[in-house]
Specification:
alpha/beta, 2 domains, 35% helix, binds cobalamin, binds iron/sulfur cluster
């Protein structure tokens, strides 16, 4: 069979990558829409942690999360000051080539989620163009949206002889073009849900109930990616959840919303009440943090009753705060409501953003101690500068890397905003954070 489209989720080249409900949601979404239009598709997930041919099975953890298979690769020279090893995460190249050799397809769709993960995309592109120089390749996703010029100049320089196209638009716009150019070859699929069923296994399903965020924090890309906040119809979200549970036995659902609790009463509450009334026994997770400001006593109780198991709150900083999405009082109030509703310490956590320009590690330490005092598990989030944000402009002044020239330097592990990172101090802070978590979880 000749597939209309081959969809590929590229490898990750990085110091670290973990399947914390990490899926190429945009690409899976696009696949679902194509299938509904009657296009035949094939999906290769190069990150697939459950691929049956992996030489070593990566360790998996609770709720569908876990490690990826990885192979060490030489660290890029420009990262020589970073005391970490470098890996290619995902299935071995040989397995990918083998799968590819069995397939026939008319066009390829590639995505790239983090701006600094583009080397994985380029590796795939290199293999594809050398084996299938005539086949069109379309590239979209967050990296494309945030670093369009970077990819454009790369393609012009190295792939100008190949039919490689960069797509900045959202899936729906792209589909209008596809419909004109390609004729569907099979019967339309029953629904347009993301193609989780084309993975080798469905450990969990990602859900987005809304796009965008009403806030505009100076370090975040949400407004660039989604200028307007757009909720989905609660009934449709509920039906999607039921579909995965009833047909595939999925229990764990991770929300990717930027503002999951915004307009709670008229949105998420409706979805959760429906879930409860059907007694589905599901578990929900919020790897992308929720807003403490929207957590009232009732919200906390409904989240608990509905089966939320992982709640991460975006606190970011305790002192010298540089956003206004939450105040310390609101944060503490939210935590007390959540605990009162019955959430255990293990189920809750707060993100602390660090590694910002001119970082003061003493301040971060105080933030960690503050969280320990209030018995909220701290999770450190290393700052990554995102083009188009005020913090990107600020980082340009302080970075030891040309962050404007190459998105590889947006990698949070390298602490790109620091002129001269004190790696010992960073290690100390990370250990402290881990120890505080341990003390909170095992008093
Ligand atoms: C979920 C999420 C996570 C998850 C999983 C990440 C993942 N899936 O890769 C977790 C929690 C693990 C995570 C972690 C981090 N994240 Co994050 N994350 C997100 C989030 C909220 C959603 C991503 C997503 O799936 N979006 C929804 C889909 C539908 O959008 P999309 O991919 O763009 O797809 C659309 C189009 O682009 C298009 N499309 C997509 N693919 C293709 C392909 C083709 C061919 C075409 C035509 C179209 C197309 O169609 C889709 C529908 O229209 C985004 C913010 C956001 N709202 O997007 C941040 C975001 C990607 N993360 C970000 C950051 C900063 C981080 C962290 C560094 C945070 C930290 N300091 O710890 C870490 C780094 C993780 C790591 N290095 O391992 C930044 C980007 C950073 C960067 N430099 O690229 C973002 C943009 C948020 C922000 N603050 O601005 N993240
Ligand atoms: S509240 Fe969160 S998603 Fe919204 S702009 Fe701020 S950091 Fe981004």
């Amino acid at each position: 069979m000749v597939y209309d489209f081959l969809l590929i989720n590229p490898w990750i080249y990085d110091f670290a990558a973990y399947d914390f409900w990490l899926k190429p949601y945009g690409l899976l979404l696009l696949g679902g829409k194509l299938r509904k239009l009657g296009y035949s598709i094939y999906y290769i997930d190069l990150l697939d942690p459950l691929h049956p041919k992996l030489p070593v099975k990566p360790r998996r953890k609770e709720f569908g999360t876990g490690h990826f298979y990885k192979e060490p690769i030489p660290k890029p020279v420009y990262f020589k000051d970073v005391p970490r090893r470098f890996f290619r995460y995902g299935i071995p190249v040989s397995i990918f080539k083998k799968i590819l050799s069995t397939l026939k397809f008319k066009a390829v769709l590639l995505t790239c989620t983090m701006t600094y993960w583009y080397p994985g995309l380029i590796s795939v592109l290199e293999i594809l163009t050398s084996k299938y120089p005539e086949i069109p390749v379309y590239i979209g996703g967050i990296y494309v949206k945030l670093c369009y010029e970077h990819l454009k100049s790369h393609i012009e320089k190295y792939y100008s002889d190949f039919p490689v196209y960069i797509v900045k638009e959202n899936a729906d716009e792209f589909l209008k073009f596809i419909i004109k150019k390609y004729k569907p070859s099979i019967k339309p699929y029953i629904n347009e849900y993301p193609i989780f069923d084309m993975q080798s296994f469905i450990p969990y399903v990602v859900i987005m109930t809304s796009y965008g965020c009403p806030f505009n924090c100076p370090y975040c890309a949400s407004k660039t990616l989604y200028p307007k906040f757009k909720p989905r119809e609660p009934e449709n979200v509920f039906k999607e959840i039921v579909f995965w549970h009833k047909n595939y036995g999925v229990i764990d659902f991770a929300f990717y919303d930027d503002a999951l609790l915004f307009n709670f009463e008229s949105h998420l509450a409706i979805i959760l009440e429906k879930v409860l009334s059907h007694n589905l026994g599901l578990r929900f997770h919020t790897p992308n943090a929720v807003h403490a400001r929207f957590i009232t006593k009732d919200v906390a109780q409904l989240l608990k009753r509905a089966g939320f198991k992982t709640i991460r709150i975006g606190l970011e900083r305790v002192e010298n705060r540089f956003d206004n999405k939450v105040s310390i009082d609101e944060f503490l109030q939210a935590v007390s409501y959540l605990k009162f509703a019955g959430f255990k310490e293990r189920e809750l956590g707060a993100y602390l953003l660090y590694g910002v320009p001119e970082e003061d590690f003493k301040e971060i330490e105080k933030g960690l101690i503050f969280l320990e005092k209030h018995r909220v598990a701290p999770y450190l989030a290393e700052f990554s500068p995102i083009p188009g944000t005020p913090f990107f402009e600020l980082t340009k002044k302080y970075s030891r890397y040309p962050i404007e020239e190459d998105p590889i330097f947006h990698n949070n592990t390298i602490f790109p905003a620091l002129k001269n990172p004190d790696w010992e101090e960073i290690k100390r802070i990370k250990i402290l954070s881990r120890e505080i978590r341990r003390r909170i979880f095992n008093p």
